[in-house]
Amino acid sequence: MTIKKTLTVAGSDSSGGAGLQADLKTFEEYGTFGFSAITTIVTMDPDNNWAHGVTPIDAGLVRDQLKTILSGGPVDAMKTGMLGSVDIIQATREAIDRYQLKNVVIDPVMVCKGEDELIQPENAEAIRDLLLPVATVTTPNLFEAGQLSGFGKLETVEDMKRAAEKINQLGVKYVVIKGGKALESNKAIDLLYDGKDFTIYEVEKVDTDYNHGAGCTFAAAITAGLAKGMTVPEAVQKAKDFVTAAIQNGFALNKFIGPVWHGAYNQAENQIK
Q: What is the spatial distance between Cα 147 and Cα 79, in angstroms, rounded to a whole number?
């Protein structure tokens, strides 16, 4: 039996719905073996209007984690999430180069759910300059795509296409812009650009606020799909189906957030009685 290996270099979401927790759950649902290198610890304070706390890990410790993970050889696919500092971004690039990692998915996390300001502006520049040139796929949401392209606020599919073309010029092979429910449409729309052609993925919007972790889950599903040998368009389509089921089955966790349910696609809750 050969089990494909997947890696996430990402932040720890203490609520369990997003970050590396979402990634590992998704990897498992795809039948891959997931590794994680923790870059940051994210907390939310219920006594202070659920304010986010973002604490980066020392870059040397991130390097040690990656060395441990990759000591057994390259993984079949990897993704990044919240990276925390320029030094951590540099450490991630070093690992990609040293171990000649393939199927690299860069999810350029720049904000926490419920926030609308860049966590660290210098990180956005480092992701653009150091990681996108070696990426197979990048999966920005509308805000992140606006930052990476320099076009600011994106409001239409045409805006997404223009931004995707610009981001593709940074060196990444495939650009997937997550429009999700943010566009003024009754559809949840995502866009794939391969340097030549655009592909639109759309489903009916799910009327819910329980979507914490949807972006991380979508990117992790693409990563796992690539590890299993899917083409990028196939991996994106499967990921769209996977995350749609997860959103449809989201639930309330506390007074502030409701996560998606990563086991929905495979109906994991029904597998063991």
A: 20
Q: What is the per-residue pLDDT for 16?
A: 93
pLDDT of residue 44: 86
Residue 37 bridge partners (DSSP): 9
Phi-psi region of 101 (alpha: psi -120 to 50; beta: other; left: phi over 0): beta
* CA gyration radius, the chain: 17
- 251 contact partners, CB below 8 Å, separation of at least 6: 210, 258, 259, 261
Nearby residues of 191 by Cβ (< 8 Å), 6 or more positions away? 157, 160, 161, 164, 175, 176, 177, 179, 198, 199, 200, 201
In the prediction, which pLDDT does 127 show?
Answer: 96
Query: According to the model, what pLDDT value does residue 115 have?
Result: 46
Closest CA to 14 of 256, 273, 195, 242: 256
Which residues of the chain fall short of a pLDDT of 70?
A: 112-119, 273
Residue 22: name the closest of 230, 243, 249 by CA: 243
Ramachandran area for residue 256 (φ above 0: left; ψ -120 to 50: alpha; else beta): alpha
